[in-house]
Write a structure and sequence with these properties.
Length: 243
Amino acid sequence: MFIQNRLGLTESIESMIAQERRLDQTANNLANADTVGYKKDKVTFWEMLFTASSGHERVGKAVKLSTDHSQGTAEQTGNPLDLYITGDGYFRVQTANGVRYTRAGNFTLNRDGQMVTPDGDPVLGQGGPVILTGNDIQIRRDGVIFMDGQEVNRLGLARFDNPADLEKEGRNLFRPTADTVQERPADQATIQQGFRESSNVNTVVEMTEMIDLQRAFETQQKMIVTMDEIDGQAVRKVGSLTG
């Protein structure tokens, strides 16, 4: 009885740790519900069979974090530097750590006329960083950029064969998961000027999931208390035996 209860305690604790991680991720999704171009993360559970220290096999809990790359809705702003990608593609951004990728098209101009992200990283075109020093900025659906009626650059959109080949780096940027991952031209993607992409977080779904997770977490807590009480009763009964 005591050994079985100890195993139950272990599995309940593992479940609580997994549920806690999922709660943290859901809370992070909700916190970024209004972040431009944000892609929500998902935590999935699975069970695996492994050999415990006692030499016996048992089922353990595992978690896996993945990113949902589905497209967010277009929000019209009228700002000529707000850009929305329709289809499979990412803006290429030059950072101190190399080229990174983002769906967040809420760009501005720095004092040198470079198109940059909110963190100041230059946006890359096919001719290098996009520099706009004129007054009239027009960006066609194919990414060609015109300044005061003259073509000056073209946005270099990238795509990847498998979205799982990208991982989040922070600051709404993605990086390849390995050096072997290659970007490809996003020839089928189009751009809408004056729009930006909202996050793909559904606040109602995330709130509902958070409530369910909190209830599941509380259930595991109650199970631990119950098994601990059973162990206590077993110890007291064994201690009260007389010859």
